[in-house]
Each structure stands twice: as structure tokens, then as C-alpha cells.
């Protein structure tokens, strides 16, 4: 029997997840959807033969739903994740795990009380082939101990985004990937404000963030969400005996009229299409075999939120901020 998935939130991201789970990922089917936009919910449900629920909590409680994917608005995540834990159902929650640290802590406590790990957080870059190659290089030890990481995160979007969201909504991916690649926690954050782009619409954009890990690795991140030309993510890890670089992949290079060029994706969907596919397949396989948390855990969601919150404090204060995490993280991993 396929794993029967309920999807809460079927906007751009949730609808793409529903498509992948129905048409690309093996061993799963979307049997239920819920969204505050009833028309959008009906459209997605019709495409995949799913039922529509007006109340997401009823979707979670339904016996014909084995696992739940949450792609609704950020403030709703905590309530729905807690409901999944109360129902004993595996849940894949898009970041953030909760709107604030207190919400993350309540989820950690509820998962502990449930007695088993059920919560996966959607940090899909852990499944991207390029980042996996960096991970294999670092773990293999061929280039020695990591010393520094340089990261770029650029979007083509319009201005007007609240400045804090450059950290909580964009740089949070670099926060998670740095923790994962280095097997190390981030303990301090500094945020610098370059001259704002004229395209930023009042947002302080770009931002330049510097993180320090517990073992002394420095990570710098340029976040530029109104870059205009497209979506681009890069990462270079510098180690004692070499470096490993993740550039922006493109399948083709054109040569014409005296120029060589390659396309830049318009947004995250083409860039990380394979990462999303692998993430969902791994999650479904884990649910089917009783091992539902193979990617980022509730602890990872909490830790990323804690670092991002320190980043927002650093943005507001102009001063370095310390990240404080719960003791004994092994209890939650």
C-alpha cells in the first residue's frame, strides 16, 4: 500500500510537493489537502484525486492519512506539527519549524513525550547533489580540516521584503547547511549592512552575515534578494589542504555572437528540483519502513531558528550576538 499523504497548504510550494508526491515519488499518494484558499485546494485535489478538508486539524486526525506535509503559512506550523505529534503521525514541515524559539521548544518537548522521532524539517539542500558532494569531500578528509565557508544566496524577487526575513527566510538555509556540512553548531552571529540596492524597495538589501562555529570555523553569507538577474546559490568551503566549490549548475552553455552564456534560473524550483525529489522520496521511504526522520530533525529546526533569531538581534543592534542552545542536544536528535 502506498503511503497516504495529507498536504496542508497548497500554494506554490505545497502544490509542487503534491505534484511530486503524486507523479514522481514512488510509494506515495496524496489523499487529502487543506488550504485557506478553498478554490486552490479544490484545484489541487481534483488534479490528484484527493479529498478537500476545510479544517487542517481534521485532515491530521483522519484515519485515511498516514503522514502529513505542512507547507502552510509560517505562523501555523507549530499548531499543525503539535497536532501531528498528538496523532502519532510522521510530519514533514517546511521551514521554519515554528514562528519562534518558544514554539520550537514546545515541539521538541512534545516529540520527547511522544517517545519517537516523527518531525522532519524541510531543509532540502541536504539532498542537493552539489552539497552532498561537498559533504562527502569534507567527511572524507582529503582536504583537511575546514577553516572557512563563503556563501552566496541571491534572488530575483521584488523589493519590500521585511529586512529580518532575509535572515529568517533566506539565510536560514545557509545556517542549516553550514551546521550539517561542518557537524558543528554556530555560536555567534554578526550582521553587516552594505549600501542598500536602489531596487530594494526600502529593504536593507543586501545583507552580509558572519557566523562563527563552536570549533572556530568562520562562515560568511551574502544575502541579496533583489539581485534582479535570477536565482543563484553558491558555496565554497576552504580547508587546510584544499577547497571545494559549489557553483550554480546549468545543463548547457551557449556560444554565439562572440559570447559564451548559460541560463540562470528564475527561482528556487528548477535549481533545487532534484533536491526536493530526493527529499520527498527519502521521507516517504522512511515513513513506509518506520524510520520517518532521515533529513533535518526537530532539533535542526530549533537550532536553525535559534541562530536566525540571534541574527535578527545582531541586525537590530549592530553588535555580535551569541547563540544559546539547550544542553544535551543528543536527547533531541
How would you sum up this structure, described in words?
The protein is of the alpha/beta class. It folds into two domains: 3-123 and 274-296, Rossmann fold, CATH 3.40.50; 126-272 and 304-331, Dihydrodipicolinate Reductase, domain 2, CATH 3.30.360. 38% of the residues lie in helices and 23% in strands. The protein has ten helices and 16 strands. The protein has helices at 12-23, 38-48, 56-61, 77-87, 101-114, 129-140, 165-182, 268-271, 273-289, 298-317, and strands spanning 3-8, 28-34, 51-52, 67-70, 91-93, 119-121, 146-154, 186-192, 207-213, 218-224, 232-239, 242-246, 254-256, 259-261, 296-297, 321-322. It has a seven-stranded mixed sheet, with helices on both faces. It starts with a strand and ends in an 11-residue tail after the last strand.
Q: Cα distance, first to last residue?
A: 29 Å
Q: What is the fold-level CATH name, i.e. the topology of the largest domain? A: Dihydrodipicolinate Reductase, domain 2
- Strand content bin: 15-25%
Please tell me the overall pLDDT. Answer: 95
CATH architecture designation of the largest domain? 2-Layer Sandwich
Summarize the helices and strands and which ones pair or pack.
Layout: E1 3-8, H1 12-23, E2 28-34, H2 38-48, E3 51-52, H3 56-61, E4 67-70, H4 77-87, E5 91-93, H5 101-114, E6 119-121, H6 129-140, E7 146-154, H7 165-182, E8 186-192, E9 207-213, E10 218-224, E11 232-239, E12 242-246, E13 254-256, E14 259-261, H8 268-271, H9 273-289, E15 296-297, H10 298-317, E16 321-322
Amino acid at each position: 500500500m502506498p503511503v497516504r499523504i495529507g498536504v496542508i497548504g497548497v500554494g506554490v510550494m505545497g502544490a509542487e510537493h503534491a505534484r511530486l508526491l503524486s507523479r514522481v515519488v514512488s510509494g506515495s499518494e496524496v489523499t487529502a489537502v487543506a488550504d485557506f484558499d478553498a478554490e486552490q485546494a479544490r484545484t489541487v485535489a481534483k488534479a490528484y484525486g484527493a479529498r478537500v478538508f476545510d479544517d487542517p486539524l481534521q485532515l491530521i486526525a483522519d484515519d485515511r492519512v498516514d503522514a502529513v506535509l505542512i507547507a502552510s503559512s509560517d505562523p501555523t506550523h507549530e499548531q499543525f506539527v503539535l497536532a501531528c505529534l498528538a496523532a502519532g503521525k510522521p510530519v514533514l514541515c517546511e521551514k521554519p519549524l515554528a514562528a519562534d524559539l518558544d514554539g520550537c521548544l514546545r515541539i521538541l518537548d512534545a516529540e520527547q513525550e511522544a517517545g519517537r522521532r516523527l518531525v522532519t524539517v524541510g531543509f532540502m539542500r541536504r539532498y542537493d547533489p552539489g552539497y552532498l558532494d561537498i559533504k562527502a569531500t569534507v567527511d572524507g578528509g582529503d582536504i583537511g580540516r575546514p577553516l572557512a565557508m563563503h556563501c552566496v544566496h541571491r534572488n530575483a524577487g521584488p523589493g519590500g521584503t521585511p529586512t529580518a526575513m532575509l535572515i529568517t527566510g533566506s539565510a536560514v538555509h545557509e545556517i542549516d547547511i553550514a551546521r550539517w556540512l561542518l557537524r558543528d553548531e554556530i555560536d555567534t552571529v554578526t550582521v553587516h549592512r552594505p549600501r542598500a540596492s536602489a531596487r530594494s524597495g526600502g529593504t536593507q538589501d543586501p545583507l552580509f552575515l558572519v557566523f562563527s562555529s563552536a570549533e572556530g570555523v568562520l562562515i560568511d553569507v551574502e544575502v541579496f534578494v533583489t539581485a534582479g538577474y535570477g536565482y543563484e546559490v553558491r558555496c565554497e568551503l576552504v580547508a587546510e589542504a584544499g577547497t571545494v566549490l559549489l557553483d550554480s549548475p546549468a545543463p548547457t552553455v551557449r556560444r554565439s555572437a562572440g559570447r559564451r552564456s548559460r541560463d540562470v534560473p528564475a527561482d528556487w524550483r528548477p535549481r533545487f528540483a532534484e533536491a526536493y525529489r530526493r527529499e520527498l522520496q527519502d521521507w516517504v521511504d522512511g515513513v513506509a519502513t518506520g524510520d520517518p526522520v532521515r533529513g533535518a530533525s526537530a532539533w535542526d529546526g530549533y537550532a536553525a531558528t535559534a541562530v536566525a533569531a540571534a541574527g535578527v538581534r545582531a541586525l537590530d543592534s549592530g553588535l555580535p550576538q551569541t547563540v544559546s542552545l539547550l544542553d544535551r542536544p543528543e536527547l533531541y536528535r
